[in-house]
Each structure stands twice: as structure tokens, then as C-alpha cells.
Amino acid sequence: MGTENPGHPNFTTRPATAPFAAPPQNMMPFSSSGPMVGQEASGFRPPPHVTQQTPFSSSGPVVGAAASNFGPTPPVAPQTNVPFSSTGSAVGAQASHFRPTPPGRFHDPSVPPPPTSSVPPSVGPLSRFPTPQYLSAAQAPPTRGPPVGQMPYQPPPGQAPFQRPQQQIPSVPMGPPPQSFNSVPPSVNALQSPSDSSFPASLPNSQTSFPGFPRKQSSADSQAPPAQSPFLTHQGNYAAAPPAVSSPFAAHQGGYAPPPQGAAPLGMQSRDHMQHHGSGPPVGAVQALTDDFSSLSIGSVPGSIEPGLDPKALPRPLAGDVEPKALAQMYPMNCNPRFLRFTTGAIPSSQSLSSRWHLPLGAVVCPLAEPPDGEEVPIVNFGSAGIIRCRRCRTYVNPYVTFTDAGRKWLPGDYFAHLDATGRRIDLDQRPELTWGSVEFVAPTEYMVRPPMPPLYFFLIDVSLSAVRSGMIEVVAQTIRSCLDELPGFPRTQIGFATFDSTIHFYNLKSSLTQPQMMVVSDLDDVFVPLPDDLLVNLSESRSVVETFLDSLPSMFQDNVNVESAFGPALKASLMLMSNLGGKLLIFQNTLPSLGVGRLKLRGDDLRVYGSDKEHSLRLPEDPFYKQMAAEFTKFQIGVDVYAFSDKYTDIAALGTLAKYTGGQVYYYPNFLSTIHGDKLRHELARDLTRETAWEAVMRIRCGKGVRFTSYHGNFMLRSTDLLALPAVDCDKAFAMQLSLEETLLTIQTVYFQVALLYTASCGERRIRVHTAAVPVVTDLAEMYRQADTGAIVTLLSRLAIEKTLSHKLEDARNSLQLRIVKALKEFRNLYAVQHRLGGKMIYSESLKFLPLYGLALCKSAPLRGGYADMSLDERCAAGHTMMTLPVKKLLKLLYPSLIRLDEYLLNASSEADDVKIIENRLPLLAESLDFRGLYLFDDGFRHVLWFGRVLPPDIAKNLLGPDFAAELSKVTLCERDNQMSKKLMRILKKFRESDPSHYQLCYLVRQGEQPREGHLILANLVEEQMGGSNGYVDWIIQVHRQVQQNPTFIKQTRCLICRVVEHYLPGKKEEVIEHYFEFSHGSTPCCRVEDVEERVATMHRFLDDSVRHHRRTE
Amino acid sequence: MAWELIYWLICFCVDLALFASSLYQYVMLTDLEADYLNPYELSNRINQLVVPEFIVHIVFCSFFLLAQRWFMFLITVPLTCYIAMLFVKQQHLIDVTEVFRVLNTEKKCRLVKLGFYFSLLAVIIIRIAISGILIPTAGSEELDIRASFLEF
Asked: Where, subcellularly, is it found (chain B) (predicted)?
């Protein structure tokens, strides 16, 4: 449609076109058909470009209709117009494109194809245009041989416009070069150079593209409208025809041919063509238009970024995580995305399609996610009837069940219900399992292997010297005592304690005693439990003894000078104690285990290991004891939470294994001091003890035929190929899984997924929590990209990357992550092919616009960051263990923390309502966001950092910090003071903490320029900044973009070239770096001449990057 | 020579044992995949067998070496090296927690071993047959020995 208008102005100048001025009227009906895709159409009107385009806007609707499936299309349309204005010949080709597009569009079953009736009118106008254009082209530019050559193929100009049904005919002549059809990029190239100078040159290109053509067609959905077939046949006929002269044209058409795949690609291609054509005088105008266009399109559909573009224009997830809505709209009875999210809301229909989706294909499940207040998961009790499941596939009854034969097939008799006039069951309102995506069934005895266990907490506390010194014991004892009332499962809750240093101490808490009795076991080689029972007691019966014990615990060991730790034997003893019931084991560990089995060595102080192939072994437990223990714990339904406090190396890699295979969690408080970190420990331990926990759980995710879950990532143990054993699980744990297609071709329209978590609730009831979701099957890669869910993808990618660090170098993990992102973008780019020479544009799907940034953030996250010097081994492992369990939202917040300016808010007298506003006012994580006159809050979900600008008005600091505001901030603690400002700050901090209760955000204060604290607290976490050997956001985007444009084999090489130097920038390898640097700069680039090498080493990677860029440019 | 026959018969038994062990482990792994067995039991059963199997294989291999059967020795040496490598790296046992991740490679590994022992078995049977046939045609001394065997 758009073609008309642009064409129109052109034609007016030419006599031949004059007759065609009429078409606009025809257009009218067309526009009426457009409304189907109203929004896009509006998007289309980038009239700003050219006034002539007004007609274009009318055409917009047509394209828009097609675009409904293909988000990116809009940009295409405007560009296509442009070419028109520049060269008439181009118009014809484009018109032919447009026609086919609408049919190709509607591969997606979910979107009903537009009424066929609407097509003909649209075609009509289009077809006319092409013809006129041909005429014009032939007439106007005498220089162009090709159009003339084509003339014979064309029907007489006069007829073509008026014959609507025959639209194809015009296209046919264009089509002759079927070869060009398939592969857009090659055709583009061909166009570029040849169109201007030599036609023959283009010929080979078009031929190369030829093979692709059949492939595309075959891949096109079988559902594609019949309209395509004529097109094909035409091409086949004409294929032989094109003489060398016409070849350029052929190439053009080829580019256009792809439409069967989708309108969007067409648009892109057409844009390319346009530019090529315009290579003469109009180039400038075209360029301007495309630029306009890109800037317009940013943030809308396919974004485009010029390298070196304003960093402010880059997409940033300042609104936090956005759950995808499309799937929920399509299947309103799906469970809430907080429970189950898919990496893409569209399952590929064939293995070949899924192999082109380079991102992980899978789901992230958080089965017990906390629903907002007032929204509970309904509990259904079928009573004696038993739980209703499909006999064949074992799924539980869910909203997507269809009742055939009055439900007699697999339903018990009393589940029968009559249907009302609309075909709904009349009892639908009373049956939440038929209307809700998430339900809980009360499980009968068939689902139990033993009576439901009571909630059981066993505490294993380190009481060695360093534990006493840090004050950890006191905080722990106080917190447990304060939580006794809130432990879930009253009155069945069981509790027990043991402490250890070089010996193991048990406590008899029998209810008849007044004082707890301590029993010491010092035989570490053959550990035994001194009392058969009474070490684990019922809390409600022994309450007073337990309280006495907790009160006296800190004082009991305050003079302990024992520095040994018999951790392994203590673990064994706990296992023996708990093996009857299962439950939760909380380990408070402070000293590196040094006695008995499971002794750990000091590792990680050998610098030579870092960067070598053996580096990963440091992140794995050295002693198989811990894995074995973890397996045993899971076997006996014991979940382990590890609290580690040491100020020295404690081998979190080994300790974390205990949590990893038992569904637990690692809490790490390096350099714990009760005065500083006490609050954090208090809050997190209290949450651990009081949150709703599911005991002795198993989880399974079922899916429709043809699809299978192949790998699982998270903290659990696999009991069988698809059964996750989770001794204790709660709302803060999420599990990720990847799926693959079992069959080469899926014939179904929808795949259903069902997560079932069988667990014992704290109240002693056995329950099954079921989440059901339906996902459409698509035949179209573009649709997969459109439905992509960045949050789920990033979660899966991060887990895969962290797992990779356990068997490879950090660098490899980062590289493979980057490679994956690049591949995905490349595939997307191929989908919507783009010009090469002018290809400063970066194309990405709207749904994935944050993916590169999150990828960068992931590379800079604690588990993957830099090398040896950037992160201590323990912190790295602890962060890795934590990230393996985080739900999507929490992970995204950790990767891209929020940065908020507070001083203005504090100064202005404002009401509580403003609090909301300030929360939304996030800043990009750039150093330039930090104004030296400001006060900023940095919040990554695990800690708060208050950053005081150097020139922050002193009264603010004084109000907030009290009299010692000028002191070094590491020694100052933030507490509420008696003034408005301080109260306001505390209020807002509290609000932030309440919004994310799973961890306590301890507030750190730092002043600008206070090194090294500032660097480590804030600067290292500004993910968009360049630091150490890593890229800044802009550089990263450029790098990714460059790789996207390169052919695949080259990606690795360039990466290595840059990396080799950057990654070598380890403390001990300076000389090597310099050597590399010389090597590199010597051979290639004049722009980074070295005067003072020593000095430049620090900023080397920056230079390298520049030099590489420079190098490219000069090429 | 009768000794030869006896020698090959012993080899046959040893090889049969190794073959059976591999087969058993393979069946266990498929059982695990089909959920007839839990990973704890599987690792228990297989891990019990691994070291004895290694020892038997090494004995088997050295048996050929001592008898100076170079061809057979060379055939069995690569597997011996592989086993030794696994043992040194402490990767010979099945890790309960990660069974499912390595299930396919373990299965493949067992299958290859099965094939290996099976082909050895074939070779050994041929050898037995040859030495069995050779006996009657051999010199009278051997016949006498056999006769004495038969007599008593």
C-alpha cells in the first residue's frame, strides 16, 4: 500500500504515471481492511519523513495487518517507500513483495489469517503500482538496461494496474530470478555494487542465493495461504528466463521473494534495495531516512543502534522485570507466570526450528512462589474419590481437560456434571481445578510412603574460638529463641541442637528436665549418638528446656579457646539423629573443618592454578565426602542450609555441595561481626525458620507428547530421570529446566505443561500443588523471538554459565554465554536481513532488547566476573550457589541493581505517596549517573549501598549520620535520628526491604572517592561501566554487533584476540600482557603507539578495542 | 598342547566374567533410566563391582603378557590404560548426585566394553577350538597325557 503514495509523487512528474494517480481511491477500501492491525498501522506512519508519504500511511494498514504477527515489520514499510521515491524500478519489485506478504504472514495458527476478501483489494493497488513503476523505470532512467529487458515479461502496463486478480503476473516478471529468493543478505550484496555499475556482477550472487529458495519455501508453514503457490509456479517458469542483463532486477526480486516467511523480512530487504538503488544521488536522502527510521524505531520494534551512538539511547530495564503478557492473554487459564515461566511462549514445531533458536529452550519453575496478599492457591479435596488424573499420561485434572463422552472416559462417576447451553459444565464455578491454573490437591494415602513428617529443625552450631569471637553464637541463639513461637507446624514441630569444636556436644532436652544436659562425644572416628531419643524433642513439650538452653548457649562457650572443627563427624552424627524423620538441618559454620572425616585443606592460595585448566577444580569439592553426605541427606529427607561466617577461607565450594543436593541454600557472611552483620543474620535466619516450607517434597514437570525435559538446573537431587527430590523447599527457590523435542515434527497445536509438587505441608497434610500452562506450537522462528521472555532466558543462561564454571575456566563460561547471545542475534538478523555496507544497525527482537545488557551483567556478576583478583574464591562460590536458586525477578534485580537518587527526595517535604514515585525513578548504572552533589541508593536485593557525593550538602549528611558525619563512613552505622530527613530515609529503606523480604539488605555507607570501599561496593557493580578487563555497555554492544555481522567461524578468533590480552591482565602476568600488546599493536595499528607501556597497560583493553575498531574502519 | 587348552579355557572364564559384569552394569543403567531402580541402589551395586572388575581386567591383561601372547596383550592394553586413568583421576565410581547427567556416557562406555569383551570372547573361543583340534594331531606324548587323564 505504502508503495502507492511514494510512487505517486514520482509519477506525477512523469507522464506515464499520470494515469495512476487514480489508484489512491482504490486504496480507500484497502485502508478499511487495514484496521485489523490498527496499532501497528499507526506505528507505521512515520510521516515525519516525507509529506508524500501521507498516502503511505494509508498503505500502512495493509502492511500492518501482516505485521500483526511480525512485530518488526513496521520499520520496513517506511523504508520501502523511500526507494520508491528514488527509483521507479524498485517500486515495482516492492509492490510484488507486498502482495505475497499478507498470506505468508499468517503462519501462526493463533492468529487468524485476515479475511481473504481483504487481500484482493490490497493486491489490486499493489499490482498496479508495480506496473506503473516498471513503466516509469523503463522510461525514465534510460541508463538502466535491465528494466527494459524485463519489459517483455511484463504484461502491458495499461492492463496490469487494472487487473487486480492478476497481481501475480506483474510480480512474475520480477520474480524470474527465483535464485535470489531465499537468502536475503547475498542478494543485498549483489544489489549494492552491481546496481550502480556492473550487472553481471550481481548475477553470481543471485545464483548463490538460489539454493536457499527451495529451503525457505519448504520451511514455510504448510498453512501458508494458497496465494504463495501461484507465486512459486511463476517463478519456476521464469527462472530460466532472466538474461544477464535482467539479473540485477532478479536480485531485487529475490530479495523480495522471501515474503512467504513473513512480511518483516521483506521490509528489511526492501530497505536494502532502496538504498542500493539510491546509490546515485539519492543516497543521502535514503540514509537520512533510514537513520530517522532507526531512531524512530528504537524502543518500538526492532531497535537499531549505531555504533558509537548515544549510550543513553540503549535499552535498559529500568522498570525491572516485566512478565510476558501475551501467553497469559492467549491462555487465560494458565498459571501465573510467577510460578512458571517459559523462555519463549511458543514451542517450535520442528527440531530444525528449535536448533535455530540458539537461546535455551525451557522453563523456570518456582512452585511455591509467594502470591500477593489475598490471592491464595485454592485447595481442593476430592475426599474418598481420590485425585483425578489421566490414566495414560498421569496428569492431574486441569482447566484444559476436555470432557468427551460425558467424561466417562477417565473420570469417576461422581465427577459427572451436566453441560449448560454454552457447553460449560454447570458446576464449573465450584471446581477451582477446572478454572485455575494453580491448585492444591489434598493427597490421599496412596501418595505417602510413611505418615507425614512433622516439621523438624536441627541446629548444628560451631562453637570454636572464632565463632565465639564473631558473636555469631549469640545472634543465632537469640534469633532462634525469638522465632520459637513462629516455627511452622505447631504443635508437632520438633527441634534439636548440637554444637561442635574438636568434639561434638549433644543436648538432652527432655521435657521432664529443668536444665538441658550436655553430652560430649570425642571419638571422631566412630561417631555415635549418645541417647536414642530426647536429643530431638517436641518443641511444645520441651519449650522451657529449649529456652533455657538457648539463653545459656552463648555463655556456655564464651571462654572456649578451641580452634579445631570436627565438622565432618558432626555432620554424620546429625544424619544419624535425623534419619528417622528427616527435616531441616541448619549448619552454622565458622572454622575450616580440620578434624575427622571431611577435613578440608586450604585451597586457592596457589596463584598458578588460576587461569589454568585446573582452575575449575577449586570451585568443586575436593573430598567426595560432602557429595556423599548430601546424597545421604536427601535420601533421608533432610534439607541442609549452610550459614558460613568465616573471615578466612572456608571452602564454600565443599560446604555448598551440602545445600546444592538437598534443596537448601548457602548464606555467606564474610568477616562476620555481630555488631555489623547481626541484623542481616537475624532477619535471614528468622525468615528461614518462619517461612512456609514444604517438607519431603518431590517435583515433576510433565509435558505433552513430543516434548521432553532433558536437563534440570538448581538445588535439588534427581531421583529418577525427571523426578526432583526436594527434602525441604520454600518460596525462595526456583528451578530451571531445559526441554527438547523428541520428534522431528510436532503435529499438535498446543503443548501443555504441568508442574506437580508433592509435599507435606507444615500442618501435616500431604498435598500436591499443580501448575498448568498451555503453550502454542509455532512454525515460525520470528514468533518464537516475539514471545521470548528475557527473564526466564537470563535465569537459564546464568545457571548454565555457573555450571560451566564448575568444569571450565571462567573465561570459557563467559565466552560461551556471549557466543550464545551473538548466535541468537545473528539468527534474528538473518530473519530480518539487513544491509551489510550500511549495516551499522543492530537488530534485535523487542522482547529481547535487554538480553545483551543482562548478558553483560552476567559476565560481570560475582560468579563469572574477571579473574583471580576480582573476587575471592569463597565469595564467588557462595554467589554461584545463591544464583542457582534465585527466582527470575530476584536474579534480574541482582544482575541489574537499581540506583536511585535520594537527596532531592529527602530535601523536599513530601508525602508517602512520593515514595512510590521515587522507587520507580531508577537510573542507569553508569558512573555519570552519580552526581557528586547527590546521595544515591544502590540496591541489588542483597544489600543497600548509600553513596554520598563529595559535595553533598553537609546538612544532609549531618542529619542522616549525626555528629560524626565527617568521619570515615566505614565506621559509621546508619540509625534513625531525631529529624525528618533521617526518618524519611529509614522509612524508604524499610519499604525497599519489605518489598523484597527473602534477604535482608544491610545498608553500607560510602563516600565518593573513599577507596577501596567505593570501588568494591559501588563501582564494581556499575555494570555498564568499563572495569578491570571487561567491557562497558556501549563497547559490549558494539562487540556483540560486530560478531553478529561476522561469519560464525570468525567469532571465536576475534574474541580470542581481544580476550587473550585482556584476560591475561592478572596480577602476575604483566609482562606477558605487555608482550601481547606489543605483538598486537606492532602488526596492525598505527593508532596506539606506545610511549609509556607501563602506564598504558592499565588501560590497555580500551586501546585494543579502539585499535580493532580503527583497523576495521581502515579496511 | 593341553596346557594351551587349559590356558585358553581360563581366559575364557575370565573374559566371560568381565563380559557378564559389563552386561550387568549396563542393564542396571537402563533400569535406572526406566525408573526401575533408584540412583542410590544403582551406585551401590555398580560401585561394588567397579574395582573388582578393574583388578580382573588387569590380571587378564597381564595373563597375556606373561604368556607372551603379544597380540592379545596389545588388544587389551588400551582398555587397561583407560581404566588406570579413570582410577588415577578418581572418576571410576558412579556419583549418586550426578548419575543422570552422566547416564548416557556411562551407558555408552559399558556398551563399548561389552562389545570389546564379546569380540575377545570370539577370539578366545576360536583359540580354544584350534587348541582342541590340535591336540589329537599333536605328538604322542600329549596323547599319553590325555590318556592318563581319561584313565583316571
From this structure: Membrane
